[in-house]
Predict the 3D structure of the following.
Amino acid sequence: GAVVSQHPSRVICKSGTSVKIECRSLDFQATTMFWYRQFPKQSLMLMATSNEGSKATYEQGVEKDKFLINHASLTLSTLTVTSAHPEDSSFYICSARLVISGNTIYFGEGSWLTVV
Amino acid sequence: GEDVEQSLFLSVREGDSSVINCTYTDSSSTYLYWYKQEPGAGLQLLTYIFSNMDMKQDQRLTVLLNKKDKHLSLRIADTQTGDSAIYFCAERGDSGNTPLVFGKGTRLSVIA
């Protein structure tokens, strides 16, 4: 079964509003989670590294004030897309590292965001 | 920075073997992964291999690693229509919290 759960799987929001995506590690603690973004027919691009109890580390070109990441507990990281625009429409996916299985990285199911 | 390259498309007949190739540039890559993504779905971990291994077999899947040439391949035996998907190669180093670096994905089409 899934070890990383992501919610919601699909969300539609209006331009200018904010939307929150949750990423939960099930049955294990994840001090670090990663957030990726995937545009249609393209590969996954790392947006940021989410660190429990501290600020996220953002990749170059990713606006930290627009994509707010909070990793308040060892099993939950959230990505909030603020003041969403249609160009933010994308597939967002999180991952967490399961140390006990040889550092395997598992992904959530992903969240399809459509901004209208 | 690190780079992972894959061919974009592969078409095979049902029942044949599929071989998806991947090359990477990071010589410190420690873990190499294959993920499968079906249309509209997230990523499914298929298999992974450590850099100190040459081969790993898991049912219909065989992963071959040539560390000298930084070449990774995924062989799917007896390919089925349900195997049609995008396959991503990814690598990461050994440092505790390094993220994955992905290739662009290979779209596998299985012809009945």
